[in-house]
Amino acid sequence: MVTIRDVEVILTAPAGSNLVVVKVHTSEPGLYGLGCATFTQRYLAVRAAVLEHLKPLVLGRDVDRIEDLWHTMMVNGYWRNGPVLNNAIAGLDIALWDIKGKRAGMPLYDLLGGRCRPAAAVYRHADGQDVKQVEDRVRAFAESGVGHIRVQMSGYGGAAIAPAVPEAVPPAAHATALYDPRRYTRSALAVLEHIRGVFGDRLEIIHDVHERLTPTLAVEFARECEKLRLFYLEDALAPEDLEWFARLRQVCTTPLAMGELFNHPREWTPLITGQQIDYLRMHLTQMGGLTPARKVTAMAELHGIRTAWHGPGDVSPVGHALNVHLDLASPNFGIQEFCGFPPAIYEAFPGAPEQRGGLLYVSDRPGLGVDLDEKQAARYPCNPGVVTWTQCRWPDGSPARP
Ligand code: MG
User: Fold this and answer.
1) 130 with 94, same domain?
2) Which of 1, 57, 279, 378 is an S-S bond match for 257, by CB 3.0 to 4.6 Å?
3) Distance 384 CA to ligand 1 centre (A)
4) What is the average pLDDT score of the chain?
């Protein structure tokens, strides 16, 4: 029996975002696995959860019993779920899948049933301060072969939208984005119409509301987007407003994507069984790793829902590799979000996924196919301090969802 001999947590930020990687060492010399546990805004809490609580629980256990260990880790603290615990569990869970792939001599996609496609189609983010800047960025991606592009203006519609009453807004240090829902919907529609007009139907367009609208305004906005034939509209509603998806569905054909904030089965299950969305977008570590993700993927397939896993800069290359392995093995894969990797990422994470044209490829080596060069990773320490980008405000100065 091969057992868990040690568990390490490596913190690194080669591309600026704080990343959390779990390394599980086994009783077999030289055999280890890597997992992503990145909750970038609370990375030290995740490290403590792994090292102080989960590591003592799993030491000496059989590396092959992933399902058993996942459930053991989830209930061991009695209270379950939550982003810190789910990410910590995911780090170990993914590392164990990596180990299983290495032991089998198979890339992870083969363990999951084998590839349905050679690579995963990606969507990239085109953002700008004005319509022209957005158009230029969309064109650059389109010319490089990317067929799916997320179109935004001013981040999530905050920075360039001046509040109606600036004197009501708290000091600038505490307000990184000022956000007016009505102005946002008008400016978003204008840029989306412009891009559709310029590029016609040769481009698939995505837009992310980032849960910044009231439910009624979200319904209005999704209806106005109908004529733009979006690939999907993302996070039109907040997790707190999930019941509104049923109403949205009844009045509008705009495809809907949701899930990056989810960390409990009660959030995704009703949306799947009710067929209320078109794309599932969970952050695979935030939902607890591959063990729950592969079940939810199969459940979605049976309900005609496709996947579009969360793939921003605050997922480690280990997590991105997991996304792609699951994409390749899932018949109901839809699209993969990707932000591109700078050279520093490839130095610290040899074997990280590579984008060519509009497709993302993973290594065919056994397991996830990504390694970690700890010397290189140590050159990029994490950035401590208070998170600022989440400190958004409504026009009257009150706190808003980021
Ligand atoms: Mg999003």
Assistant:
1) no
2) 279
3) 24
4) 94
Distance 283 CA to ligand 1 centre (A): 10
153 alpha carbon to ligand 1 midpoint, in Å? 14
Residue 402 maps to a domain: no
Work out the burial of residue 200: count CB atoms within 10 Å of its CB; fewer than 13 is exposed, 13-18 middle, 19 or more buried. exposed
Distance CA 296, CA 320 (A): 18
| 212 in the same domain as 344 | yes
The answer to the question of residue 389 being in a domain is no
* 35 against 164, higher pLDDT: 35
Question: What angle in degrees, to the nearest 10, is found between the helix axes of 244-251 and 215-225?
Answer: 30
- Sort strands 392-393 and 177-178 into parallel, antiparallel or unpaired: parallel
State the number of CA atoms in the 13 A half-sphere of 360 facing the CB: 27
The Å distance, Cα 208 to ligand 1 centre, comes to 6
Provide the 3-class DSSP secondary structure of residue 277.
coil
- Number of structural domains in the chain: 2
This prediction's pTM = 0.96
- The whole domain housing 294 covers 110-377
- Residue 317 and residue 353: Cα distance in Å, rounded? 7
Nearest to 298 by CA among 265, 267, 270, 331: 331
pLDDT tens profile 28-80: 999 999 999 999 999 999 999 999 999 999 999 999 999 999 999 999 999 99
CATH number at residue 358: 3.20.20.120
pLDDT tens per residue across span 272-285? 999 999 999 999 99
Q: Write out the E strands in 312-358.
A: 336-337, 354-356
Return the C-alpha torsion angle 205, 210, 211, 217, nearest 10.
-50
**Whether residue 132 sits in one domain with residue 45:** no
For residues 160 and 185, the answer to whether their CB atoms sit within 8 Å is no
For 194-235, give the DSSP string.
Answer: HHHHHHGGGSEEEEE-TT-S-HHHHHHHHHHHGGG--SEEE-
Cβ burial of 315 (10 Å; 0-12, 13-18, 19+) is buried
